[in-house]
Specification:
By secondary structure, this protein is α/β, with parallel strands linked by helices. The protein has eleven helices and five strands, in the order H-E-E-H-E-H-E-E-H-H-H-H-H-H-H-H. The protein folds into two domains: about 100 residues; about 110 residues, no CATH class.
């Protein structure tokens, strides 16, 4: 049986958890982090935000004004867990874990940096050339596997809904992840040049950094350029 001291401690811990679960206002690097609708899964928001503040330099959040968590139709309709738009990051309350929350926030931070650091990321075309080389390697592998790729433009740097559908429905995540080993950081990186950048940025902080450096050296160097450029 628990002694009185242990019982008191248990009551305090339960009370703190209850307060955390009902709290709506948080802060991430001084930015408002508001819970419009609570997460469906038990996520320790305070601990997650503290982890982010330990992992990422504060200046990388300067393009973001606020964060909102809730059940947003524009996320659900597109099958997204988070999106950066108009200076804010919108996060689905259907996210299932603290790691998932960290990954989504870092991913959207990378998109927020594209305007300010676009000249660093894309200006010299080196990242685009690396991406296209990898897209061509993927095209060769898909052809070897017997997929009909004749309708798809692997040279297109922009997001294309038909190409995206082909990758994730016709080929499938499991197969695509196998095919991109040694070519790209992950299957999602093949979607477009912008997602190639964002996946690399995310992996730099919460993925296998050494693998990223080995597989995508230009992408790795671009992430480091942005991190160290504090103008």
């Amino acid at each position: 049986m628990l002694d009185n001291q242990s019982k008191i401690q248990k009551i305090i811990e339960n009370s703190l958890r209850e307060q955390e679960s009902q709290r709506r206002d948080f802060s991430l690097f001084g930015k408002w982090f508001y819970i419009k609708e609570h997460f469906l899964a038990p996520i320790n928001i305070s601990r997650t935000l503290e982890e982010l503040e330990e992992k990422i330099p504060a200046h990388l959040f300067e393009e973001i004004d606020e964060f909102f968590v809730g059940d947003f139709d524009f996320l659900t309709d597109k099958g997204l867990e988070a999106q950066y738009k108009d200076g804010a990051v919108y996060i689905s309350n259907s996210i299932v874990s603290e790691l998932d929350l960290v990954e989504n926030i870092i991913h959207e931070v990378s998109h927020s940096l594209e305007t300010r650091y676009g000249h660093v990321i894309y200006g010299d075309q080196k990242l685009a050339r690396e991406f296209l080389l990898k897209r061509n390697s993927l095209r060769s592998k898909l052809k070897q596997e017997g997929y009909d790729i004749s309708e798809y433009d692997f040279e297109n740097l922009e997001y294309d809904e038909d190409f995206d559908f082909f990758l994730y429905e016709a080929v499938g995540y499991a197969q695509l992840n196998n095919l991109v080993v040694g070519i790209m950081p992950s299957a999602y990186a093949a979607t477009s040049l912008r997602e190639y950048w964002s996946v690399g940025f995310e992996d730099y902080f919460v993925g296998d950094r050494e693998y990223l450096k080995r597989v995508s050296p230009i992408l790795f160097s671009k992430v480091e350029e942005v991190i160290t450029d504090e103008y």
